[in-house]
């Protein structure tokens, strides 16, 4: 019996590794466009999975009721190595309106250089124990401890990320890696939240969904992004997060098997004749799919969305 498996692949890696897979494993990818897959993944989740989207503010997670008839338009901010901002108007209807190269890769890359830590988890762990005020220059540092209330800035607002390092007379080694990691996480998350809001404003979008593997359900990251969106929108816009934020592209590629008919898909037990891979530029991540062969010579996949 001969088995032909055509894996769906999305992201830059679908292109970057296509020849390698063909040469070494004899496998051809079915390439799915990255942006299209991201949007497909989010739409699938929002329409199919209960309690998928939530807000996170002041340590409180609140699930958001999604009205399927009033879902669009929204802004999707996908934070991977870089950041893509996509205005979504419907199934398959979207436009990438902006992006920034200051993303998860910047956090991890700079973090490795500045703290010598080896992995994302290590860097995050460090950031949990740090205090950004040691390195960040606050409004109060500039204004002698007081707020600049006339323009809406409290004394504890960050005036300049890493600004204290200008005149502290310290070398990198004199700072605790925990504090450096904390400032870095705050700087990146804050910046993304601000750019996201400005783009939402450009197009009059009230809802902003944040996804990508950078978020990973991390409270400090989500809190910083939420505060940035809240601050810049003066409470008008809300940052929303997704429970399955790290698998958007792979899910979108998966749902595209059925000719984009997401509505026919249920989050449990799909019978498909193919497999999926989510390929970023430098690594592969399998969506948690279990598979076994059944008598009709198909691969039975079930996704566990918990
Ligand atoms: N265990 C981990 N190992 C590496 N990076 C991680 C890990 N957990 C979270 N991250 C963060 O996720 C980012 C990568 O996210 P993701 O895989 O969604 O994007 P990507 O596909 O590599 O990038 P892009 O969307 O720009 O192509 C990293 O830059 C890092 O900040
Ligand atoms: C290049 C991609 C789309 C690859 O996923 C992503 O890393 C990204 O959106 N980077 C930001 C590029 C920019 O808009 O400045």
TrEMBL record:
EC number(s) on file: 2.7.1.33
Lipid biosynthesis keyword on record: no
Any one Gene Ontology cellular component term annotated for this protein: cytosol
GO molecular function ontology, one term from the record: pantothenate kinase activity
Keywords on record: ATP-binding, Coenzyme A biosynthesis, Kinase, Nucleotide-binding, Transferase
Catalytic activities: (R)-pantothenate + ATP = (R)-4'-phosphopantothenate + ADP + H(+)
GO biological process, one term: coenzyme A biosynthetic process
Statement: the UniProt record of this protein carries the keyword ATP-binding: yes
Recorded metabolic or biological pathway in which this protein acts: Cofactor biosynthesis; coenzyme A biosynthesis; CoA from (R)-pantothenate: step 1/5
Superkingdom to which the source organism belongs: Eukaryota
PANTHER family: PANTOTHENATE KINASE, PANTOTHENATE KINASE 1
Protein name: pantothenate kinase
Organism, as annotated: Arabidopsis suecica (Swedish thale-cress)
Origin organism lineage: Eukaryota, Viridiplantae, Streptophyta, Embryophyta, Tracheophyta
């Amino acid at each position: 019996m001969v088995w032909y498996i055509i894996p769906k692949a999305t992201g830059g890696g679908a292109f970057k590794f296509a020849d390698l897979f063909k040469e070494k494993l004899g496998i051809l990818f079915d390439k799915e466009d990255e942006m299209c897959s991201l949007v497909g993944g989010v739409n699938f989740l929002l329409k199919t999975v209960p309690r998928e989207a939530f807000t996170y503010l002041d340590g409180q997670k609140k699930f958001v009721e999604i009205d399927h008839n009033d879902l669009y338009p929204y802004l999707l901010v996908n934070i991977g190595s870089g950041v893509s901002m996509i205005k979504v108007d419907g199934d398959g209807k979207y436009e990438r309106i902006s992006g920034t190269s200051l993303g998860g890769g910047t956090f991890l890359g700079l973090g490795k250089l500045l703290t010598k830590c080896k992995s994302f988890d290590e860097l995050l762990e460090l950031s949990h124990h740090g205090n950004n005020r040691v390195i960040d220059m606050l409004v109060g540092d500039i204004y002698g401890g007081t707020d600049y209330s006339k323009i809406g800035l409290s004394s504890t607002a960050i005036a300049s990320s890493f600004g204290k390092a200008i005149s502290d007379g310290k070398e990198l080694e004199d700072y605790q890696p925990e504090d450096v990691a904390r400032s870095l996480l705050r700087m990146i998350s804050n910046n993304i939240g601000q750019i996201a809001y400005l783009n939402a404003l450009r197009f009059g979008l009230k809802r902003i969904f944040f996804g990508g593997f950078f978020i990973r359900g991390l409270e400090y990251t989500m809190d910083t992004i939420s505060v940035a969106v809240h601050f810049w929108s003066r409470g008008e816009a809300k940052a929303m997060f997704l429970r399955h934020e790290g698998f958007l592209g792979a899910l979108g590629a998966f749902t595209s098997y059925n000719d984009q008919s997401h509505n026919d898909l249920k989050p449990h037990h799909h019978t498909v004749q193919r497999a999926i891979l989510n390929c970023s530029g430098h690594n592969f991540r399998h969506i948690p799919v279990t598979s076994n062969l059944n008598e009709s010579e198909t691969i039975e996949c079930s996704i566990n969305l918990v």
